[in-house]
């Protein structure tokens, strides 16, 4: 956000260490509060009371007889010959809360639901496989989707109708009508369910591998040419009324512009990064991005903060800093990671999932300010500065409150106000500190305190990208601590992963999203540390994924393991979204592993996966950007940067001053068992620039190695 450092860089490690201690205390206190709430007397208690998911526990005292996802619910539906409601959401979902309050807490509505239906509640973050199937069904039926997701099914789970948010009266009418139709026209509903289920099973499913593909830069050029008319050239991002930060889209654009010297595309990336960093979607006081902006100006966020967004945005801004050395980008990374350490880190080194949009029953109440509150918190001089710095007025006004946002970086503001950059940095940091302390007295947004393997792996990657950009040891320490948690709690000896963790319990077999991002994280840990135990763990997980997720017929991976109980469809996740598709991430992961471990079959399988989607990439580019990154690495030189010898850390630090997206690090101080490093250990520290095993002249000078990559 701001161009200044939140605290001085020399004090930051101690500051964040202090925050970690605070986290441990706060986490324990939070857990005590949660236990107290659960021990209160309630008029109603349903089967969700035995679950660990914060979202499911939110509904444990509804008058609706909710059941968790599982065979028991469907067996009950078959026995009683009732339709099933599969209601899906997540703990920080604002409209999920609204529908709960309007309908699921209402006894009249609950009585109707209990009489006519078997009602299942699903946390989409715990069971993304279930969410995929029924989101697909609702999208096929209605053309759109979202959360809360409410899908009605036959007793065997085949969907017949669905939608998202319903107000109370239409909801009750729908319940009556569906039950009537089920009782009076069962064959008609059966026929519809068959047709819809067939559509779900075929949707986003690749059955036959594509052969004879020649990858080319021209395909990527067409992708970008088709995309450019959708750019918002004034406020960044795409031309949409609601704007989501899309880190992978911007990462691909940045890499594309780098490879092909496209200044227009690069300028659009920087415009978007700047507008997001200065807008209300970014928490100016405390750091971290909200999930999306409800307007084109990035002003009014949907205030929930998701771990997966912020992990990827840390990576993106760190890479952008490597390219530009823009202090605004550096500030975003440091302040966002301060937020993650302060509010999202568990005592064990993992990260919680999300912060709610609502607090004290109102969306955004925790984050917005009145002028009176600002004046009461700051002295007159500080208030005058904040009033100007944060543009307090009509531009920041929202529903009677003010969303803090900015129009310029600290450097630009200093020029306007005839101040030094250091003065602005210091003043803004002091004001933010006061506002953060005052804000901490408010009722906090709800915390989703489960830790997901996939999202934690993304945060590990983010921390490592930040470490590479800034050489901040605390970022590396955080990544290593997170990886230790993952190995201890989520990774089994056979390479299998568990998906979710809370209160000392790991559960739910991992999905492809867990494997692909964990493999990427552990591969990157090797790249940063040259500790080969990480690459061994990455390969162990990849082997398990091939054994239990891979489809030999198509050359793609299913989202769920072959050891899972069957849903009505076993899906393949192909299209990139806010989080890259698990198949595109897996393709990138095994391509890199194939290089590092000299496993050509991994590389060939990755190329086959890309070939399978290649024909569709240019038609809707934003859904194929992670695939596009793999394509860039295939059609352009992809450098194997081996650094060997005692001073490898110093040489790597120097290389990390450059933005070089098309490279893999490997090496170490002493001899290695990795075949790719055979013959690369000399008497002095040496850098080898290689492409597919063919190396240029070894050098001990970083500038020479960079020059070799620019030839």
Q: What does this molecule look like?
A:
It contains 26 helices and 23 strands. A 5-stranded mixed sheet has the order 1-3-2-4-5. It has a 4-stranded mixed sheet with strand order 21-20-22-23, sandwiched between helices. It has a 3-stranded antiparallel sheet with strand order 8-9-14. The radius of gyration is 26 Å and the shape is globular. The longest helix has 27 residues, at 12-38. Strand 10 and strand 11 form a beta hairpin. It is of the alpha+beta class and 711 residues long.
State the helical fraction. 40-55%
Low-confidence stretches: 1-39
- What is the mean pLDDT? 92
Sequence of strands across the biggest β-sheet: 1-3-2-4-5
- Beta-strand portion reads 5-15%
Structural class of the secondary elements?
alpha+beta
How far is the N terminus from the C terminus?
36 Å
Beta strands, count:
23
Sheet with the most strands, sense and barrel status: 5 strands, mixed
What is the general shape? globular
Helices and strands, with pairings:
Blueprint: H1 12-38, H2 54-58, E1 67-68, H3 71-80, E2 83-89, H4 94-104, H5 107-116, E3 117-123, H6 128-142, E4 149-153, E5 159-163, H7 168-184, H8 186-202, H9 217-227, H10 247-260, H11 263-278, E6 292-293, E7 301-302, E8 305-306, H12 307-324, H13 327-344, E9 354-355, E10 358-359, E11 362-363, H14 371-377, H15 380-389, E12 397-398, E13 401-402, H16 410-417, H17 421-439, E14 447-448, E15 451-452, H18 453-470, H19 473-490, E16 498-502, E17 505-509, H20 512-529, H21 532-548, E18 550-551, E19 556-557, H22 582-596, H23 600-614, H24 625-635, E20 639-644, H25 648-655, E21 663-668, E22 686-691, E23 694-695, H26 702-709
Parallel strand pairs: 1-3, 2-3, 20-21
Antiparallel strand pairs: 2-4, 4-5, 6-7, 8-9, 9-14, 10-11, 12-13, 15-16, 16-17, 18-19, 20-22, 22-23
Helix pairs in contact: 1-13, 5-7, 6-8, 10-11, 10-12, 10-24, 12-13, 12-18, 16-17, 18-19, 18-20, 20-21, 20-22, 22-23, 22-24, 23-24
């Amino acid at each position: 956000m701001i161009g200044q450092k939140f605290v001085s860089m020399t004090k930051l490690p101690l500051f964040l260490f202090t925050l970690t201690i605070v986290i441990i205390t706060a986490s324990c206190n939070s857990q005590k509060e949660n236990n107290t709430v659960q021990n209160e007397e309630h008029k109603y208690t349903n089967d969700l009371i035995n679950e660990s998911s914060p979202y499911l526990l939110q509904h444990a005292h509804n008058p609706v007889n909710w059941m968790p996802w599982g065979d028991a619910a469907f067996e009950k539906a078959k026995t009683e010959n009732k339709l099933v409601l599969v209601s899906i959401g997540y703990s920080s979902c604002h409209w999920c809360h609204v529908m709960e309050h309007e309908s699921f807490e209402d006894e009249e509505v609950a009585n109707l639901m209990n009489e006519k239906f078997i009602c299942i509640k699903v946390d989409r973050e715990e069971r993304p496989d279930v969410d995929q199937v029924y989101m697909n069904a609702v999208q096929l039926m209605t053309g759109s989707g979202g959360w809360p997701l409410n899908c009605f099914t036959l007793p065997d789970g085949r969907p017949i109708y669905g939608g998202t948010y319903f107000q109370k009266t239409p909801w009750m009418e729908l319940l009556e009508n569906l039950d009537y139709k089920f009782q009076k026209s069962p064959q008609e509903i059966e026929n519809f369910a068959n047709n819809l289920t067939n559509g779900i099973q075929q949707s986003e499913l690749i059955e036959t591998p594509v052969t004879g593909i020649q990858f080319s830069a021209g395909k990527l050029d067409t992708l970008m040419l088709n995309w450019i008319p959708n750019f918002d050239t004034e406020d960044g991002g795409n031309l949409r009324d609601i704007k989501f930060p899309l880190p992978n889209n911007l990462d691909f654009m940045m890499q594309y512009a780098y490879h092909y010297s496209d200044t227009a595309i690069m300028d659009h990336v920087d415009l978007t990064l700047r507008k997001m960093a200065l807008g209300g979607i970014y928490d100016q006081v405390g750091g971290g991005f909200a999930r999306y902006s409800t307007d084109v100006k990035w002003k009014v966020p949907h205030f929930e903060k998701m771990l997966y967004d912020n992990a990827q945005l840390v990576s993106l801004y760190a890479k952008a800093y490597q390219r530009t050395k823009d202090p605004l980008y550096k500030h975003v990374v440091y302040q966002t990671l301060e937020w993650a350490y302060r509010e999202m880190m568990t005592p064990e080194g993992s990260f919680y999932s999300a912060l709610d949009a609502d607090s004290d029953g109102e969306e955004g109440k925790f984050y917005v300010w009145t002028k009176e509150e600002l004046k009461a918190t700051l002295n007159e001089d500080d208030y005058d500065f904040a009033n100007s710095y944060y543009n307090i007025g009509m531009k920041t006004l929202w529903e009677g409150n003010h969303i803090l946002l900015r129009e310029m970086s600290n450097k630009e503001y200093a020029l306007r106000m005839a101040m030094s950059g250091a003065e602005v940095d210091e003043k803004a940091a002091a004001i933010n500190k006061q506002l953060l302390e005052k804000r901490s007295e408010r009722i906090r947004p709800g915390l989703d305190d489960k830790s997901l393997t996939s999202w934690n792996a993304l945060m590990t990657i983010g921390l490592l990208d930040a470490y590479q950009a800034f050489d901040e040891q605390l970022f590396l320490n955080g990544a290593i601590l997170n990886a230790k948690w993952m190995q201890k709690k989520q990774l089994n000896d056979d390479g299998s992963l568990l998906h979710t963790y809370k209160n000392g319990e790991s559960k739910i077999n991992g999905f492809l999203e867990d494997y692909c991002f964990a493999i990427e994280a552990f591969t990157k840990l090797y790249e940063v540390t040259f500790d080969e135990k990480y690459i061994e763990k990455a390969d162990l997980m990849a082997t398990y994924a091939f054994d239990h997720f891979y489809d030999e017929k198509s050359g793609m991976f299913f989202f769920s393991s072959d050891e899972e109980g069957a849903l009505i469809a076993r899906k393949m996740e192909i299209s990139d979204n806010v989080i890259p598709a698990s198949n595109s991430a897996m393709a990138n992961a095994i391509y890199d592993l194939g290089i590092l471990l000299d496993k050509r079959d991994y590389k060939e399988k990755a190329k086959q996966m890309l070939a399978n989607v290649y024909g569709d990439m240019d038609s809707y580019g934003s859904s194929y950007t992670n695939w596009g990154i793999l394509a860039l690495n295939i059609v352009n030189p992809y450098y194997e940067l081996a650094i060997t010898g005692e001073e490898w850390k110093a040489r790597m630090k120097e290389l990390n001053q450059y933005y070089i997206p098309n490279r893999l690090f490997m090496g170490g101080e002493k001899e290695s068992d990795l075949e790719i490093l055979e013959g690369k250990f000399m008497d002095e520290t040496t850098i080898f620039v290689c492409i597919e095993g063919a190396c240029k002249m070894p050098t001990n000078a970083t500038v020479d190695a960079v020059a070799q990559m620019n030839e």
